[in-house]
């Protein structure tokens, strides 16, 4: 399953998503973003995750073009922003994103946050895009279990994936279990908590034992939990380091030690009360 950077997870609709992708959140400089995408693809990454609100879809599209990789070999994700949610506005937002990426289709399109009173209509728009073949898979981001249950009760298609804040301090075990039971893949944003957990003694100790960095240990922990990851970096050496996860394995004991770091501590907003 986890052999190399090209290892993929099969989603419930049969489409495969690479286990490791490049996240481009907070990449503001267009040229820097283009270079990061090119570096990632040159290093063997097949997946890039962006969003309308990141305002860098054009740069991602440019990076893909400049990399020379074949579009069909890559997996490109974007997301509809909160202010664009609703049926017609979502269709329009998707069209805008696709144009900015300068592509014919997306591999995955997500609802960025569960905007109350809107996400079910937004989902209907995603179902339409999916049925028309403009996007290969549709999913959600930042959905709690109750959001997922509500969505599934009001839809024809089940999300293939739920992209959530997940790291050792917030291991989301209950939500991950629910998603697993429903055959919804889990993808972690902020997989290393933007570096806030790297000094945890247990992580440092495990890292030393394997001759790896704390970040690599955390990313490996995600993979062994069957979680898709999209670590973000603009630095070539870090992009490569974040992908060097396939020549070591954490023992059950080490996995448990990392699980024990959990404090249900969020560094991002709670999906039940975000205000944007």
Automatic annotation (TrEMBL):
Per UniProt, residues of the NADP-dependent oxidoreductase domain are 26-262
Query: What keywords are annotated for this sequence in UniProt?
Result: NADP, Oxidoreductase
One short Pfam name that applies is Aldo_ket_red
**Does the keyword Ribosomal protein feature in the UniProt annotation?**
no
Which InterPro entries does the record match to this protein? AKR, AKR5G, Aldo/ket_reductase_CS, NAD(P)_OxRdtase_dom_sf, NADP_OxRdtase_dom
Q: Which Gene3D superfamilies match?
A: NADP-dependent oxidoreductase domain
- Where are the membrane-spanning stretches? none
Say which family it is in: Belongs to the aldo/keto reductase family.
PANTHER family linked: 2,5-DIKETO-D-GLUCONIC ACID REDUCTASE, NADP-DEPENDENT OXIDOREDUCTASE DOMAIN-CONTAINING PROTEIN
Name it: Aldo/keto reductase
Q: Which organism is it from?
A: Rossellomorea oryzaecorticis
């Amino acid at each position: 399953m986890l052999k190399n950077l090209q290892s993929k997870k099969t989603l419930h609709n049969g489409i495969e998503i690479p286990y490791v992708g490049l996240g481009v959140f907070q990449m503001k400089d267009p040229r820097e973003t283009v270079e990061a995408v090119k570096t990632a693809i040159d290093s063997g990454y097949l997946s890039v995750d962006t969003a309308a609100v990141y305002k860098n879809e054009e740069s991602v599209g440019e990076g893909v073009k400049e990399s020379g990789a074949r579009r069909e070999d890559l997996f490109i994700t974007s997301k509809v922003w909160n202010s664009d949610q609703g049926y017609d506005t979502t269709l329009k937002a998707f069209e805008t994103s696709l144009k900015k990426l300068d592509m014919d289709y997306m591999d995955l399109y997500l609802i960025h946050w569960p905007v109350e009173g809107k996400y079910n209509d937004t989902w209907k728009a995603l179902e339409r895009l999916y049925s028309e073949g403009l996007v290969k898979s549709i999913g959600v981001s930042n959905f709690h279990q109750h959001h997922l249950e509500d969505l599934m009760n009001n839809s024809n298609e089940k999300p293939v994936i739920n992209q959530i804040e997940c790291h050792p301090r917030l291991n989301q075990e209950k939500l991950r279990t629910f998603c697993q039971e429903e055959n919804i893949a889990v993808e972690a944003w902020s997989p290393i908590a933007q570096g806030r957990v790297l000094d945890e003694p247990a992580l440092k100790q495990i890292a030393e034992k394997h001759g790896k960095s704390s970040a690599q240990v955390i990313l490996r922990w995600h993979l062994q939990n069957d979680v898709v990851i999209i670590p973000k970096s603009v630095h070539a050496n870090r992009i490569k380091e974040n992908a060097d996860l396939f020549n070591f394995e954490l023992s059950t004991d080490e996995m448990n030690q990392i699980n024990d770091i959990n404090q249900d501590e969020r560094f991002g907003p709670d999906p039940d009360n975000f205000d944007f």
